[in-house]
Design brief:
The chain is an alpha+beta fold and about 150 residues long. The chain has 3 helices and 6 strands, in the order ααββαββββ. A hairpin with a 4-residue loop joins strand 4 and strand 5. The N and C termini lie far apart (about 45 Å).
Amino acid sequence: MEDRTQQEQASPAVQKRVRNSFDLQGLMSHLGARLTHIGPGRVHIVLPARPEVTQQHGYVHAGATSAIADSAGGYAALTLFDEDSEVLTVEYKINLLAPAAGDHLEAIGTVLKPGRTLTVCQLEVYCVQGSGERKLVANGQQTLIRVDRPGR
């Protein structure tokens, strides 16, 4: 049975704020990553597997894997804060569990413990085959800090 939080959508205002912020990220654009789900405390980012994001053996590079995981967690946290807030990663740790070989990667950031200042997120990255088969290739944990939006 699928967890309800996987399908719950954030409000339209929160979705717009997250999408606008995501669109400003040069790295996500450069990698070809896109947002596929924005829910309260949960965000999914998909990265198509292309030669430009691979390492020498043809697997999706750990740097690309880590980048989408970091962004998924950051945006998951952002969904829980007001419009005058932003988040910055304080630290994260990621375990690379298996080579990322498939059609695309899906990073899922989930808030474990929200806070006024610090928020902790779980990070998961799945490699997805064309058939829909999913394999966990990375997991981690992240701490973010809430900051006032610049110019406030």
